[in-house]
């Protein structure tokens, strides 16, 4: 069974479907000129209360037909939505106003409602098609090693040595920052070595005995060393606690958090879900392979119409869960799909594997952030979908600005 799962995931992660009407060129990362999102002015805000309860589902979402009827946002509306809050580790907060330069109005996507039947409110549809990644050959290697867990219960994805992309609602409910986000931590998967803890404790005792030291005599330096060791063990043991040879988490504090004003302006307006993404800057860089951002292509440019993402679903504790599915519908900012997922996986990075221009290699990039289960209006009928927020050129430029502090590295993507 384990061997069958190995090959199933191997081929699923690497496949590309090309029929008679499609060429290899249709499934290529097309570099696009990115509009400039530049910082204009930063204001200091009062510190947040950090009192909101985590909320995974909005009360109402403007649906597919509703989005088609909405007027195109003006430049000033976009600049207001792309302005952003930054919350620092010490609890202080700022608001940065931005200006958008070189932006061209994008046409509304041709939406392709498939007439899916109304479903009961659940996030696993029919047969559960998720895969629990248990084999360390996958778990600790790319692309699964890019999945991380937040101390607030969500998932995220590594996009640089210092940054994690996740959903905004994982730290902010649209009105205030949620409880627990003040001391936010990110958990990176690692494998425990069998018997490592016991050997380390034994070796310390052996060293003390060999040096002829008296265990009853404890210096201040030893006390400090032991306290630091206990603190590190507690940090590593938070959240998922793996047995010997099993996966566990190495927890890292978050230095600051960026959230677009389109989400953090009180949750008012139908466009709030379009901005359900956030960037976390880690206090210490990691050494794992990360996944780069990419501009979200249309459904027709998705290999086989499929998307992929991995996260830490609550109904499968202590497991990384991978899934893939086809996209049913799209708008300019959202992907509507029926990927099986449960709470805990929200904030996961949705990715594709496309061919690099002028190269023989293929590359995975993040093209959306999984936001979760939502009810939407389609032709006046309430239907439920699992929704992902697309990385548009403007969002790509904004996230790039958050990562680099300027737009020098954000000219194309």
TrEMBL record:
Pfam families: Trypsin. One of its GO terms (biological process) is proteolysis. It comes from the Eukaryota. Keywords: Disulfide bond, Glycoprotein, Hydrolase, Protease, Secreted, Serine protease homolog, Signal. Residues 190-250 are annotated as: Disordered. Residues 217-228 have a biased composition (Basic and acidic residues). Residues 140-200 form the Peptidase S1 domain. Residues 190-207 have a biased composition (Basic residues). It is found in: Secreted. GO terms for cellular component: extracellular region. Its main location: secreted. Residues 1-20 form the signal peptide. GO terms for molecular function: serine-type endopeptidase activity. PANTHER family: INACTIVE SERINE PROTEASE 35 (PTHR15462:SF17), SERINE PROTEASE (PTHR15462). Belongs to the peptidase S1 family. This is Inactive serine protease 35.
